[in-house]
Amino acid sequence: MAAVVLENWVERIRNPEIECMSRDEMAALQSKRLANVVNRVYHNVDFYHKKMKALGVEPGDIKGIEDIDKLPFTTKEDLRDNYPFGLLAIPRKDVVRVQGTSGTTGKLTLASYSQKDVDVWGECVARCLTMAGLNEEDIIHICYGYGLFTGGIGLDFGARALGATAIPMSAGNTARQMMCMEDFGATAIACTPSYALHLAESLQEAGLIEQLHIKTGIHGAEPWTEEMRRKIESILHINCFDIYGLCEITGPGVAQDCIHHAGLHINADYFYPEILNPATNKMCADKETGELVFTTLAKEAMPLLRYRTKDLTSIDHSTCRCGRTTPRISQFTGRTDDMKVIRGVNVFPTQVETALLSMGGAVAPHYLMIVERKDNMDILTVMVEVDESLFSDEIRKLDALKNKIGAVLKQALGVSVRVKLVEPKTIQRSEGKAVRVIDKRGL
Amino acid sequence: MIKQLSVFVENRPGSIMRVTSALTSACINIRAIASFDTPEFAILRLVVDRPAKAKEDLTAKGFVVKVHDVIGVELKDEKGNLNKMVSVLAEGGISISYIYSFVIREEKAPVMVFNTDNYEKAEKALRAADIKLVEEVEL
User: Fold this and answer.
1) What is the pTM (predicted TM-score) of this model?
2) How many angstroms separate the CA atoms of A125 and A146, rounded?
3) Domain shared by B89 and B106, yes or no
4) Which residues form the domain of B104?
5) Comparing A374 with A42, which gets the higher pLDDT?
6) Does B12 touch chain A (CB under 8 A)?
7) What ipTM describes this predicted complex?
């Protein structure tokens, strides 16, 4: 059972002027900002200038959001091709920080921020924290990883904007997490949903739940189900909220659900959403599933036009029971690519391929990724076919090879993997697109 | 020195059978077999009558195979001979990576097969101790 039942919930809205704005007024605001960002990128970002010229589109042609389909798309590959600073719209010296996420091959996907971008990011997360019922009196235990990944830093910025106390735990070391939660009196916890469940069960086993003051959980960075949320809520007696974001757009805080759990409210004054049919690129109607595409309306350092997230979802523009008019996206139904989220980290099969190739063979050995969840932790096993170049007569050399592959993959993917050496031809070959991943998690 | 085949197999039922079936249908005679395992995979080591053909055949059937030189030593079937051989090597500071033996047949003495990191030193030590080395042709 959750901490606070719906009947007793008091809704607080950080920025009612924006979050409860009429649809017409929001459209007008978004239109003004869109025209502005298009003008900025046309004149300051070579990539967009070329793309728009190729389409025969000029900033003057974009009068409002109704003209958005005239604009070019941006993909992860574009970010890779312009890595690291090729998409900057401001001088590099004005970039106050960078954050990164997994790339599809060897390099990270890098995002740059101006001071204002950082402030907006913090503000968006603060809106989400408020939506989750938090305020400046709260103590937020943040166990998302801190570093290039946006999880830890994003929640930290949000806590700062809110005026709450941030406990920057980063990820790992469950025993220490539990001790600090108890000692510092955390009232909220931010971490991936699978870690929340793992932590909940550890706390339950340690008999610590009664000693804690946690009433709220903010979880994201990986897909999760309604069942998982209820399970975490019932073990810890807290209210759990689903926070969404992506590094390329800003990080966590792009959207989050409210107490009614009827979709994730998008901070649409900053991030303009489109749901497009991935085959035709035509806009989907409300409640129709398509690919989520974002345009950043106010980012200074690295604004993006029509960034294809590859996440499949649907949108609802109706006013929510909480009073917010910001559009809501439904639970993600899948992706248009092979990307998997393992313990909160994005992993692409192509990264595995690149890493295996880097080990020196002419061709990457055949591999298969198997994703499972055991004791609430994601486990990635990479099966690698042993071929003539990899095989050695000595067990210890094969063992060393196995460990080396594990180390190379860990370095490339950012998560530990299990390596299983298998006989040649055990991994199914296919005529068409190779099956690279088997996900047994049923998410 | 004698030739030895190593085949990579996974730890599952039928792994050895798949290899021996393949060799049988290629009319290869298996003289010795030993397996060395880890929790997940194993290396099957074989001494056969025609190692080059065996390798070719197994590779064509999709196995990963390597052919190595290993030392073969013929020991008289008497107590203490294995111990003597192993002692000679130990005293010479020569380490044995793995060792296995042949099935006795046609009244020929048992043959010990082993791998070491320093073949020259091992052969020298064994000869000096009057221990009989076996060459491929004698098998």
Assistant:
1) 0.81
2) 16
3) yes
4) 70-138
5) A42
6) no
7) 0.72
